[in-house]
Every structure is written in structure tokens, then in C-alpha cells.
Amino acid sequence: MDDRDNARLVTMMWETQAHTLYVYCLSPHLSRDIAMDYRDDARLVTMLWETQVHTRQHSDQLAELAALLL
Fold this sequence. Notes:
Elements: H1 3-7, E1 11-15, E2 20-24, H2 41-57, H3 59-69
């Protein structure tokens, strides 16, 4: 497993002696790597769509994270 695979883990939880540490990866799984200065509208729209799908699929985890932060 490389760093990219590690970054794509959705949620991991480690239990320690006194605390539970939650780690949330908010980055969606994109079909292609896209540079920050990329300008092809079609590929950018695909990236936006994939991000929207990811957000909806993981809305329960995002709500849990929001509750932890409040």
C-alpha cells in the first residue's frame, strides 16, 4: 500500500489508553489525478461530480465529524 492508498482511507479509528482518535480523510476518490492549474472543463466537471458523489456517500461520516467539531 503506497501513500496514495493511505490517503484514500475514509475513516480510521485508533483506541489509546485514555482517548479515541478519529481520523477523517475528506478527499474523494477521483478517477484521474488533476493538477491545481488544470483547465479542461470536461475533466473538471467530472471531478466536481465525483466529489459530490463522495460527499453524499459519506454524509454520515461528515455529520459525525461536524458533531465532534461543535
